[in-house]
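Lecture 7 notes: from sequence to structure.
We start with the chain below.
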Amino acid sequence: MKLTKNVIKQIFILVFSSILLASCATNSGEPRAPRDITETGSDCISIRTIRDYTPLDRSSLILEGGGNRQYYVTLVVSSFELRSSHRIGVDSRDEWLCPYGGDQLIFDGFGNNRVSVRGIMRITPDQAEELLYKHGKKERPEQQDPTPPELEGAEVEELGEIG
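Predicted structure tokens for the same chain:
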């Protein structure tokens, strides 16, 4: 009898724990609203996933990571080499590029310019496109004015002369 109570108690605890864990892990199903773009984001990027970059100006760029993730990166100071550099390097104390801990981006050019990172923020594709528009790296598509629809029976009649 005592053995059966212990087994039932353990099964109850296991089922209750599973239900509790499942309720914590559920997603509301609604997509999260994107955060506002800030220059002092505190996200980090795994260095080995960095695939490409797009300079926006002398102190900011978009880094593209694995899984089509994009990050808005701002630098502590402006770098003239950022726009003309064909490649970048990373100087970090570990395998993550973060805006704290003295992590730096290295731009090839005259003298291998090193610049500390001020902020990193993961952005959505729409936010990345908006940054490209804002910094003049991409032209906004021209929107054509919609032509008013033709209405039948709206002709103008001329009145005869009064006289």
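Points to note: Residues 45-134 form one domain. The chain is about 25% helix and 25% strand.
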